[in-house]
Design a protein that fits this description.
Blueprint (H helix, E strand, L loop, with lengths): L1 H46 L6 H18 L18 H4 L1 H21 L3 H22 L5
């Protein structure tokens, strides 16, 4: 009976670790998709493929400003592998820089919420915000195959 209890306990601990790992990965992928969604339409506006729409830009900036700080908590040490993660191991080696990039994205998006009032100001502010995302992806994300 004691051996059975030990096996059940070991299984429960392992299952809990796997659940926590997949939950963090799932949560960060969901959050990153929301950030990607905010970037997609505004990126189209930046390229002139979609008409400029200030309320949509402000909504996208709000998503970025609110999501970036949350993202920092979705890369715990036990989520380095598993699921369908594109996160590179360097994230955990350079955690201060990695988290700082989310802080910068949030700060830039918050500042843009106050400064973007028309298409001209949007076209000045947006490249800095997009650069935050692209710069982070180049260092910390596995490239698409």
């Amino acid at each position: 009976m004691l051996r059975f209890a030990a096996v059940v306990t070991a299984f429960a601990v392992g299952a809990t670790a796997v659940y926590a790992q997949s939950t963090a990965i799932d949560q960060r992928q969901k959050l990153m998709k929301s950030i990607g969604g905010a970037m997609k339409e505004t990126g189209g506006m930046m390229k002139g493929a979609i008409p400029f729409d200030l309320p949509k830009v402000q909504a996208a900036l709000k998503v970025l400003a609110e999501s970036a700080p949350k993202a920092k908590d979705l890369f715990p040490d036990d989520s380095k592998e598993g699921g369908d993660t594109k996160a590179l191991p360097i994230i955990w080696e350079q955690k201060v820089d990695f988290n700082g990039r989310f802080d910068k994205l949030a700060a830039d998006a918050t500042a843009a919420m106050g400064s973007v009032t028309d298409e001209a100001s949007f076209k000045i502010a947006w490249p800095k915000i997009g650069g935050n995302c692209g710069g982070c992806h180049k260092v910390y994300q596995k490239p698409d195959k």
